[in-house]
Amino acid sequence: MAAPGGPTRLPETLYTYQTTTEVGILLSSVLFGIFIAQLYQYFTSSKSEPVQMKCFGAFNHDRALRLYVELISPEVVFIALIETTHTVSLWVYLVDMNHGSILQPGYLILDTFTIDLALLMSGIVGAVVQSFYAYRISRFSGSFWLGIPSWTGSVVRVGITVAGCVTALRGFSGRHTITDWITKFSWVLGGVLASSTVVDLVNTIILCIILSRHRNSGTRTSRVIDKLTVWAIETGMLTSILAVSHPILGRVELLPAFLHVYPNMFSLSLLLS
User: Fold this and answer.
1) CATH number, domain at 21?
2) CB of 260 within 8 A of CB of 24?
3) Residue environment code for 218-240, b if the CB has 16+ CB neighbours within 10 A, otherwise e
4) Is residue 5 domain-resident?
5) 118 vs 128: CA distance, rounded Å
6) What is the pLDDT of residue 254?
7) What is the pLDDT of residues 35-89, one digit of tens each?
8) Taking the CB of residue 61, how many other CB atoms lie within 10 A of it?
9) Domain for residue 70, yes or no?
10) Which of 122, 132, 171, 249 sees the fewest Cβ atoms within 10 Å?
C-alpha cells in the first residue's frame, strides 16, 4: 500500500498505454524531424537542375524512367502540412492526457478531439502517398488503368478513416474511452489497415513488374532499376508488416506505439524515393 500522501501506481493497462503513447509520439517526432531535414535538402540541394535529374542522371535517355522519378513539389508540401498538423495534434494530446490523468487516471484512455484529428491526418498521409505512387506507376507505364486499383483502395482508406472520426465524435452519447470506441467500431481500424496493406502490395507488385521490363542487363540504368526494385519491395514490406502487427498482437494498450509512427513511414518513403 502506498504511504499516505504518496503516489498511487497506475493500473498496469493504463501504465502500459501511457508508456506506449509517449514512446510512439517521441519516435513520430524524431521521424518528423528527419522528414523536415529531407524536405529542406530536397528544395535546396540544387539551384540549377531538378533534384530528380541530379540523383537519377542514368535515366536521362529514358523518358519513362524520368517520369517515374519525378517528385512534384505541391504533393510534397501538402504532405509536410499534414505531417505538421499530425505532430502538433499528438503533442497537444500528450500534454492534455498527462494533465487530465493527475486527478483521474482513466483520463489517459479518454477519446479526445486532438487524438481523433491526429488519426485523421495519419490516414490522409498514407492514402496520399500511396495515391502518388499509383500516379507514378501510371505515368511510368503509360497506362492510366494501372493506377486505378491503388487509387480506389486509397479512397476507401480515406473514407473509412473519416467514418472512424465521425463515429468517435458522434457515435456515443457522452464522453468515452478509446477502448470503448475500438470495441464498438472495430471494423474501422481493421478496414483502414486492410486497405492500406492491399494498396501497398498492389503498388509493390505492379512497380516491380514494370521495372523488370525496363531492365537492360549490363547498363547503368539496370543497376539503378535493381536498386529501385529492392527499395520498392523493402518499403512495401515495411509498411505492410507494420499494418498487420497490431492485429497479431491484439493488445489495445500497445496500439499507440504503432499508430503514431505509421504515417511517418509513408511520408519518409515519399522523399527517399
Assistant:
1) 1.20.1070
2) yes
3) eeebeebbeebbeebeebbeebb
4) no
5) 15
6) 80
7) 998 888 877 765 444 444 444 444 444 554 454 445 456 778 888 999 999 999 9
8) 10
9) yes
10) 249
